[in-house]
Amino acid sequence: MRASRGMNSFESNARECGYGNIAGIDEAGRGPLAGPVVAAAVILPPDYEHAEIRDSKKLSPRQRERLSTVIQREAVSIGIGVIEAPVIDAVNILQATLAAMKEAVLGLFPPPDYLLIDGLHRISLAIPQEAIVRGDARSVSIAAASIVAKVSRDRIMEMYHRQFPQYNFLRNKGYGTSEHREAIVKYGRCKIHRHSFRVAEIDCLPVNEKLGF
Fold first, then answer.
1. What whole-number distance in Å separates Cα of residue 196 and Cα of residue 67?
2. CA–CA gap between residue 32 and residue 208 (Å, rounded)
3. pLDDT per position as a tens digit, 93-109
4. Rounded to an integer, what is the distance from CA 104 to the centroid of its chain?
5. pLDDT one-digit tens code per residue, 47-94
């Protein structure tokens, strides 16, 4: 299927420079109050295009699930990196995100020879790479990675929901919804909550003292 030519331009430019296995990298879960940050790295076939693959935030859950299945079937390789809440607390969310991205890249086979990374920051790997602001809206490889990362993280949070149903992670996926914030006040934090978020980041909960931050 055809996508806009612009979604393949970064990949085309890299191939014109002689690179073959080009990986798009993106993450899901930088902003939640609970759960891991998950990164995906995706190598697509040369000149791959798909009209529906775009930034995962612009897709419904059902669309993401369907497209993730397509990407899993058609990609040359996919790598996943997962960094849990205790490490996020220890090193901060930016460093945890970069670590998840690095883990995802190292999980690729065949290995990539060029990286397209969503955002401002590069990964500490000796592989030629390019950081692209709003890359999930500009590169088909990064968009594919954004979909795989989001679906992978949602499935992890659904698993955690079975352990901690009182927070309704099935619905909020760890993000700071009013329901989730109220559950934190009522039940306190569980083992997958991030200790490093500030009270201000949960919109001034009505009884901040109960949070113990």
1. 33
2. 18
3. 999 999 999 999 999 99
4. 10
5. 998 999 999 999 999 999 999 999 999 999 999 999 999 999 999 999
**Interior/surface letters 117-128, b for 16+ CB within 10 angstroms, e for the rest:** bbbeeebeeeee
| 133 exposure class (CB count in 10 Å sphere: 0-12, 13-18, 19+) | exposed
Look up the pTM and report it.
0.90
3-state SS class at 146:
helix
Spatial CA neighbour of 22 closest among 128, 161, 169: 128
In total, the chain counts a number of residues equal to 213
pLDDT for 203 equals: 44
Sign of CA dihedral 56, 59, 64, 66: negative
Q: Left if phi > 0, otherwise alpha if psi is -120 to 50, otherwise beta: which for 39?
A: beta
